[in-house]
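seq as requested:
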Amino acid sequence: MRAYILGPVLALVLLPSAFTAAALPLLQGEWNASSAAIGWVFAAYQAGYVLSVLLILPLTDRLPVGRVISACTLVAGLAFVLFPFLARDVWSAAAIRFVAGLGLAGVYMPGTRAIAAVAPPERRGLAVGAYVSAFYLGGALSLWASGLLLEHMDWPQAALVLGVISVAAVPLAMIGGSKISAPPGRSARLDIGVMRDGPVARTVLAYTGHAWELYISRGWLAAFLATVLLSNGNQVDAVAAGSQWAALMIGLGTPGVFLGGWLSDRLGRARAAFIIACASGVISLGFGFLAATPFALLALVGCVYGLLVSADSAIYSTAITEFAPRDRIGSAQAMQAFIGFSATIAAPVIAGWMLDIGFGWGPVFAVGGLFSIGLALPLLGLMRREALIRPA
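struct tokens:
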């Protein structure tokens, strides 16, 4: 089916997305920025996403999903191509990444909706998991490729290479979205009333905890590992190695979402999501305190962490498409993305602020674990209503 091409589209759109996380120590030094300020460069991408989902996702209740995906793929690609030319300080860089986040809003969740619509109910979790895995693959490739390129060229040239490659997603998006059936809704406006539905609201809360934990690791994992490695080499070498190790750990999220989707098809959405959220949360509570341990142990725990921290993503994305009224799926996805991704704006900045005032890496990651476990608790109520969340 052509819709499955949307997975590679998503991966390409995300290819330049983690460049600022990989190059963070270099950009921070060049722009003379504090950790909190540089966190805004990373968070601006999420801010663009969050502020636009309330307008873009409800459009998919009335307009063809493929048309929305194609247009937004082009916006994201152009923003990343322009980044090395226009980014001269924290705020210009943040503005460009804000626009790129606008583009992502019209690719990621609409693609989830398209895949869920064509997948058989009994394999829907796995199918959405395969699509969402492209989100993690794109992020991991972004870190890996950024670190590799930064070893051989200055950061503006490295950013340009990634931006140009990402533009290849545009023709693929046009092909993948060309045969998606028309949506059933009559309105393209946001309906916040979908949050009065109990299963939808509980899923959104759990997704918010997942997003907070995930984006602390996405924003600061490479810098944390670079800090650990800095004692054994110069800054550029540590930055490159930290990015590549972070890419490996985050890259394990690719099989992780397959695992989570498959598990949810068998255990039910809420039960599988709760188990995974608690497991990753427990690791987050201790991960940042492993800096003084042998790096081999840190790397091993980090790989398990990367596998688990992503594994519930596809479960929430699938559940929303199943819970929401058929004519308001776009509005339900918009509320999920707006509330959940609001955490991705706050998390990197608060983490940077905690580092600036001397909390250290341990508490930074531990806060992510507390959010993951605490906001997963509402899923306990859904576990008693499993018939509502199992595919019909």
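The chain has a mean pLDDT of 87.
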